[in-house]
Amino acid sequence: MTHDRPATAPQPEHERAERILDAARELLMAWGYKRVTVDEIARRARIGKGTVYLHWKTKEQLFTALLRRELRQHVHTVATGIERDPDAARPSRVAREVFAEQARAPIHRAMLAGDDELLGALAVSGTGLPVIRELGFGELLARLVEIWRAHGLLTEALPAADQVFIIDMALHGAVTGGVVTGLDNSDYPTEHRADLLAHTIRTALEPAGPPNPARLRAAAQAVLTALEDARHTLDAPGLHAANR
Amino acid sequence: MTHDRPATAPQPEHERAERILDAARELLMAWGYKRVTVDEIARRARIGKGTVYLHWKTKEQLFTALLRRELRQHVHTVATGIERDPDAARPSRVAREVFAEQARAPIHRAMLAGDDELLGALAVSGTGLPVIRELGFGELLARLVEIWRAHGLLTEALPAADQVFIIDMALHGAVTGGVVTGLDNSDYPTEHRADLLAHTIRTALEPAGPPNPARLRAAAQAVLTALEDARHTLDAPGLHAANR
DNA sequence: CAGTTGACCAGATTTGAAATTTGGTCAATC
DNA sequence: GATTGACCAAATTTCAAATCTGGTCAACTG
C-alpha cells in the first residue's frame, strides 16, 4: 500500500459504503425491499455491482446494515435530547421520543411494526424474529429498565420483566394502532398520541411525583452510557473485514 | 301458510341458521376464510347449498353473521361476570376479560388483531375498516367510557376520547404483542399478561383507591345495560327478512 | 305449492411451463 | 490491487389453459 493512510483522513471505503447505503435507503422507501435490486442500488451509487459485494456478502446484509444505521442515528437523537435535558431520560419521555421518531421515519416505523410491505423478507429475520429484535432493541430496553429502576425512575413495585412487557405493549399498541384508532386518523395528531403514550407509561410505571434532580442527572448519565454502548453495538460491519 | 306457527315454538329456520353457522365456524377455524367453500359448509350442515343462500345473500354476509354471533356471546360472557361481581365492571377488569377471552378464542383474536390469515377478505370490510370496528366495537367502547366517567370509575383528568385511545392502544398492544414479546413466548402466561394490561389501564385511567361500592353497583348496572344494547345491535340478520 | 336442492354458469383462482429478472461470482480490465 | 459488468443458476413473473367456487334457478319433493 502507498504509505500508511493516516487514521484521521476520511477513509474512502467507508464513505463509499455510506453512499451505497444512501442509495439503498432512497430506493427502499420508494419501492420496498422486495422490489429494490442490487443493480439499481449500484447504479444510483455510480458504482459497479461487484463493488457492492465488496462491502456486504448479500443483499440482506446490506439492508441489515442500513437498518442498523437508521437505528444508530435514532439512538443518537434520543441521546442528544437527554444531554440537553436530563428529564428526557425518564421512561415516559424516552418512549415518547421513540414513538415520535417512528411517526416521522417510515423505515423506523416499519421496523417497529414489522411492516411486510416495506421490509419484505427483512421483516422477520432468518431466525423468525422481527428485525428490530435481532438488532438488539430488546436487550437495550431491558438494560434501560434496570438503569431506571436502580435510579428510582421506575417503581420497584413491579418486576423488571413486567415493566419491559408493559413498555413494549404500549409502544407497539401506539405504533400499530388499535381497533378504534384508524392509522389514517389525521385529526388525532401524532404529538397528542405521543403524549398519551407518555402519560400511560408514566402513570403505570413511574413513581408518583417529579424525580429528585440529583438522581435524575445520575440516571441520565447512566442512560447515556447505555445508549452509547448500544450505538457501538450497532456499528454496522460495512467494510471488507466483515466479508467472508 | 299452514296456520300461524305459535311464537313460542322453536323456529326451525332459526335453528337451521345456527347449524349453518356452527359448520362455518368449525371450517373457519380449521382452514381460514379463503379456503372455506359454501359447498363444504352446506355439506357439514347436511343441507343443500341453495338453502344456505336462503339465509344470507353472500358468503361474506354469512361470515359476518358468524362474527356477530361470536362477539355477542363474548359480550354475554362479560355481562355474566359483571352480574356475578360488580367489580368486574371496572375498565381494567373489562379490558382484562376481553384480553383473556381473545387468548382463548381464535376467532375473537383474529378480529381484534385483524388477522388476514384467518379472516382473509373479512379482515378489512368493504369500507376499508377492520371488521371488529364495523361490528360496533368502537361505539361500544366509547359508550362504556362515558358510563365509567359518569360513575367515577375513570378520572375526568383526561378527555374521554383520550381514554378511548389509551384503552384501545393498550389492548391492541397486548393482543398483537410487541418487539420484545414473542407471541409464542409461552413462559409468559396469558393470565399474567392480562394482569399487566389491567394494571396499566387501572393506573393510567382509573382514580386512585377502590371505588365507592354504591357507585360501583350503579356503574355495573349502567354497563350491563350498555352491553345488553350492544348484544341487541349484534343480533345478526340470519333469516329471510334480511334477504333481498 | 312452499320449501329445498344440486346441476349449471360466469368469473375468479390456480397451475405449470416458458420467459424474464435478479442475487451473486469472477475473469478481464483499469 | 481495486473495480467492473458479462455471466449463470435460481428465483420470480407471465400468461393461458385448467380448475374451482360463489351464486342462481329450473326442477323436484313431500
Automatic annotation (TrEMBL), chains A, B:
<dbReference type="InterPro" id="IPR001647">
    <property type="entry name" value="HTH_TetR"/>
</dbReference>
<feature type="DNA-binding region" description="H-T-H motif">
    <location>
        <begin position="37"/>
        <end position="56"/>
    </location>
</feature>
<dbReference type="InterPro" id="IPR050109">
    <property type="entry name" value="HTH-type_TetR-like_transc_reg"/>
</dbReference>
<dbReference type="GO" id="GO:0003700">
    <property type="term" value="F:DNA-binding transcription factor activity"/>
</dbReference>
<keyword id="KW-0238">DNA-binding</keyword>
<protein>
    <submittedName>
        <fullName>TetR family transcriptional regulator</fullName>
    </submittedName>
</protein>
<dbReference type="InterPro" id="IPR009057">
    <property type="entry name" value="Homeodomain-like_sf"/>
</dbReference>
<dbReference type="GO" id="GO:0000976">
    <property type="term" value="F:transcription cis-regulatory region binding"/>
</dbReference>
<feature type="domain" description="HTH tetR-type">
    <location>
        <begin position="14"/>
        <end position="74"/>
    </location>
</feature>
<dbReference type="InterPro" id="IPR023772">
    <property type="entry name" value="DNA-bd_HTH_TetR-type_CS"/>
</dbReference>
<keyword id="KW-0804">Transcription</keyword>
<keyword id="KW-0805">Transcription regulation</keyword>
<dbReference type="Pfam" id="PF00440">
    <property type="entry name" value="TetR_N"/>
</dbReference>
